[in-house]
Amino acid sequence: MKKLLLLLLLVPMISFGQDNEKKKSPILGDLFQKPVPGTSYISNGDYKVVKVGKNGFTSTKRLGKEAREAMNVFAQQNNFTVKFASLEIIKAGLGIYPSATVYFKAYNKDGSIAVNDADKKLEKQNIVAELKQIKELLDTGILTQEEFDKKAASLKNILLGN
Fold first, then answer.
1. What single DSSP character describes residue 111?
2. pLDDT tens, 59-69?
3. Same domain, residue pair 53 and 110
């Protein structure tokens, strides 16, 4: 009887792990979501490259090597120099895909922090959203006017390039 109960508990977990759609388990949350591969902008010249294995037998060492190579390709395509920051490895497990994430900082040839045009647009959208969010916090009384002004000024400086 105990084996049957254990089997009935594990079958849904395994099926969550094999589904490529973005579904959340009500109990386990994001645990069984497949990471999204590719290069993405974080903020202020910080980027990450994610490589994901197709199954639990994919070598994490190979994924790490591929992620570093993708970082170098990204740098060459955008005429950036990069400084490696860290490598995060997630090993395969029950319903967990193996993955490697490389975090790095990108610089222009002159040494300034590099942000490509698409990422500048994304960063501005994020700043506008954050300004709206702190305005709501001010309106609800969670932030004082002084706190709002201080945070809004720093965000406006970034937004306007001052």
1. S
2. 999 999 999 99
3. yes
